[in-house]
Amino acid sequence: MSRPQRLGVLAGSFNPPTIAHEELVYAAGFHVDEVLCVVPSVLPHKEYFGATLEQRLAMLEAARLMPPCSIATSEKGLFIDIARECREHYGPDTRLSFICGRDAAERILAWDYGRPGVVEEMLKEFELLVAARSGEFQPPAEFQHRIHPLGLRAAHDQVSSTEVRERIARGEPWEHLVPGTIVERVREIYS
Asked: Which fold has domain 6-190?
């Protein structure tokens, strides 16, 4: 098995996967050799509810995301922990780029990690590919060399797993917000 030189990591709860996730994977394909979708078994800023870990993995598999895309779980949920697990598997020569939206990038840079210097440590381990989400992300000057814009074909600012779940709960149309290959699975899990 050949290891990618450039690996994009899309970590998330995928509760459920959406067309926004699909678009992030597609857009990242222009920057990396492979995208790894990672579902943490422990979420750092959310409670685990809704679909089980196994159901989330099955939905990701059924979504058939393109370009070359693989799926994994992680013992922990912070990007730095996921990056270290990726290093163990892919080796030190693979260039890691975490894929996220503007809102997640802001959270990553502002998160209280319990000690100073963590953001700098993280951005030595990996880079960020950041898609616009309700606005463009403007990285701080000291991080601009490690944070890059990720252009999308279409804006999906209002598309989120939360929106899908809320629409299902209200009985509103939601099917257009998830990849077509998982509509029935989403219906079974969340209805």
From this structure: Rossmann fold (3.40.50)
